[in-house]
Amino acid sequence: MPPVLSRAAAPPGAPHHGPASGDAAEDDALLMDIIRQRKLRRLQAAVAIRRRQIRAALAGEAGQGPQGSKRRETSFFSWTDHLARMTERDFKLRYRLDYNGFRELLKLIRGDLEVTNEKMARRAKWGYLVEPEVKLAMTLRYLAAASPLDLQLIYFVSKSYVYSCVWSVVDAINRRLKVEFPIDDVEKLKVLEAEWASRAHCKGWRGQVAAVDGVHFAMCGPSNKQVKDPMRYYVARKSEYALLCMACCDADRRILDYDISQVPTTHDSQAFAISDLGRRVCNGELPAPFFINGDAAFSLSNSVITPAGGGSADLDKFDYHQSSNRVAIECAFGMLVKRWSILWKPLTVRFDRRAPLIGACIRLHNFCIDHRIAEETRDENGISEVQPNRYARTPKFDKEGRPVRYLQILRGPAQRHPRAGLPTATRDRLLAAVLECEIFPPRLAPGIRKKQRKKQRKRRGGRST
Hints:
Layout: H1 24-59, E1 64-65, E2 68-69, H2 79-84, H3 88-95, H4 99-113, H5 118-124, H6 132-143, H7 148-155, H8 159-176, H9 186-199, E3 208-219, E4 234-235, E5 240-249, E6 255-259, H10 268-274, H11 276-282, E7 291-293, E8 304-305, H12 313-326, H13 328-339, H14 351-370, E9 379-380, E10 383-387, E11 390-393, E12 396-397, E13 403-405, H15 425-436, H16 448-459
Parallel strand pairs: 3-7, 7-8
Antiparallel strand pairs: 1-2, 3-5, 4-5, 5-6, 9-10, 10-11, 12-13
Helix pairs in contact: 4-8, 6-8, 8-14, 10-11, 12-15
């Protein structure tokens, strides 16, 4: 409460004019002078405010405000206008899905992407609500190796919001799209077996339900805070940190099961045996006569078939057909990496987010196969890009699907594999069927065995084989 002015007491800071018993006229003059000063200050403040308002009104069109540069008007992203500027081919190149596939995927995960409090969401984005279509589009572009800084400029959101949308979509995809191997459903196993039999060159190759192998996904080295021993994830022969993914696929290259729980230095056979599916297969829970096709890194059994290792013309022919039916898992890895370009380079996201990110790419890979969304592959002069920056001659087949040339199934020198003599009823049955088949392995190019021996001597430090 301001002090009460009276004739007996002057306000603080006022000049002293003598005792309180002075002339009354001098006290009245002093009081009126103080009142005039206060009115003058109020008038000056009102004039300054009015002048700022006038300057703001006159300079508003020039982008200047009373306190300097006027804030730029916020731009908003329109999904409808964005679609109108693209053709179907441009859309597929940007988002790796065609428009129909994009809508189908959005229909599955829309409920997980919609906001629960629309009022607060609009308040955070100046009244603008980010649609689920935009969130899915940002994630697909991110998985296609787009930079978050570019996404920030394209979709008019902050960098932190880009990552927020990416992880919400990744979690929704992992939650809604299922990856499962039907080991307990005999009818589905019969369907898988029929698909493999229809694609096999040998009509007697029956019983296969999947092909299994492992792949390394490069990543940046984790810190000591993220894992106890970061060097466990370092692969010396590749000079990089990596994640090991054990997976099996069907005849359409659709991944049926995967496991990323083991360190990359784990042997493939051990990593498969530790996984949930591998443990059940090794325990004999896969119904007979079904089996999984693997390479020489896996253990031979009636449920897992591996190469015989050559040593004779009959075993060499068996290895050719076994490898031809196993190479589908290699193709699946190539299709996965080629479509989602974020896997081309080491993963830099947080360590606990890397496995879910790979899982989302695998599920999207299966989604594209289910909806027949093919990846555009260029075939120039008979050479195709099978993996990023890796080219090979395009295989050629006749009208009946038999290989004519350029099917590169390399075989080592004639030596008996340690597992060649192991008795397994499944492999004996397949070997008998292969010997009755009229399709023989293609002839190797001249000098190929000499090159293979040279490579083996180089690996063994120059020792002869």
